[in-house]
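Re: duplicated header lines in exported structure tokens

Our pipeline writes sequence and tokens for each protein into one text file. With two proteins the header for the second block appears twice in some exports. Here is an export where it did not happen, for reference. First protein block:
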Amino acid sequence: MKALSIRQPWCHHILHSGKDVENRDWPTRFRGDVLMHASLSVEEDRDFIRTHDLPLGGIVGIVEIVDCVTAMDSRWFFGRYGFVLRNPRPIELIPCKGALGFFNVPAHVAQMVEAHLS
């Protein structure tokens, strides 16, 4: 299973606030479901993260990447490239170490995700 590390509160906004694009400095040809990893490092909105007790350091959901664009009519788009997102599905935090770019999760994490989806 592929995963992508995303800082909070962006994971939260993808899963709960309609954020429909993930901004990156690099393009991707990947299409399909990807696990969302909430990284340990966070964006500057630390008060929002503390107030909402957002999870860090693990898999928090699944989202489908359907396109990669350089322009988009979305209030969330501000990057050089945007991974267009659809069908976000939150799951309870599954602790997991992240990595840069897309990465494969360990087998035991993949099993826990599959068990959660069953």
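Second protein block, exported in the same file:
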Amino acid sequence: MAATRRRAAARGSSRAGLPERDRIIAAAMALIAARGWRSVSLAAVAAEAGLSVLQVYRHYRSPRAILCGLIRHTDEIVLAQPALAEPGERPRDRIFDLLMRRFDALSAYRPALASLRRDLPFDPLSALGAGGALLCSMRLTLEAAGIRTRGLTGAVAVKLTAAAYIAAMQTWASDDSPDLAPTMAALDRRLRNIERCLPVGRTPPPAEESQALA
């Protein structure tokens, strides 16, 4: 028991430089990768992160909330930089760039995400919560790419984009190529298939204009 506590403390100290929210997410993903989704509790995450249960609870009230927190945290990374319009670029190209940014941001958590794909179907409430958070992410992605998301056509675009992303993730999960070429090909193919269903709205500023304003 003492050795287990020492190992947990060492893991927590290795994340000591991270904000508490990030430490909690990283700890939860480590647990999921090692033991599966069913092993995740606030107490287990707290021990893995080197925090108290109360510290975890202040940020996330449940393991399901931590999972949704990962999705929101990924949004913050992906959308921190604008999707700039290049000459002759199609809207799907901007979506492609944003979704590839998403895969890059999640690369450290690939084993945990593989475990989640296996386990979440057996936890419908958590799957529903994560699905809702993912749809919100896809709406933000389309907005950033200049695609309208309001109304029926917008709702359809959001769901089709989510389906394209999830399908490409199947390839990404086992893609060990240095440039993720198989993932890029799969994502591009899926986005081409839904391109006619993406209602174009506001076009992001050209890259040159954005650089001039910076």
